[in-house]
Amino acid sequence: PALQVTSQESCHPEGSLPAPQLSLNVSLAHAGDTVTFRCLVPGESPMTRVIFCEDGQEAASQPITPGRFSYDFTHRVSGPGDAGDFSCWYQHRGDNNELVNSNLSTPKTLSVTDAEPVQDGGDPAIPAWDLYLILGILVPCALLLGLLGLLGDAAIGQFCSPRMLPPKNEDAVTYAALR
Fold this sequence. Notes:
Elements: E1 4-5, E2 21-24, E3 28-30, E4 34-40, E5 49-54, E6 57-63, E7 70-76, E8 84-93, E9 99-101, E10 108-113, H1 128-159
Parallel strand pairs: 3-10
Antiparallel strand pairs: 1-6, 2-4, 4-7, 5-6, 5-8, 8-9, 8-10
Organism: Mauremys mutica
Domain Ig-like: 20-105
InterPro entries: Ig-like_dom, Ig-like_dom_sf, Ig-like_fold
């Protein structure tokens, strides 16, 4: 589902559904940066759409995809005027076509500076949660390879007699001539 930029409607839902959680990949941005806001909605809550807010005004919304609980809003920073408080919430349309709102997420503040970004060697295009995902995959793979290496050494020792193994440097090798 595509993100839809919406009109500047007020973002103050009075809701009976639990509030979602909002996270952002950076709290301090520079002009030209892309900031990603992630709205995590409770899995048990019925939903129709997710709404992202900037400074109390609706900024964008997305229709809900069944089975999905994470929705992103990407914001390109043009300058200090893009600083503000961001939040999200969701709506559900009931059986009688009435709208039921969630409570508003706890706001996250985005600060924007004119200063040039300090390069710390990291890639600002990779959000922190993606790095954790990559590490979460690589570390178990490395451990699995190490375990397979140990099991392979044990299997060789168990199934091969010392006579089948190549001689070690300290072993004396004698050859006999047959006539």
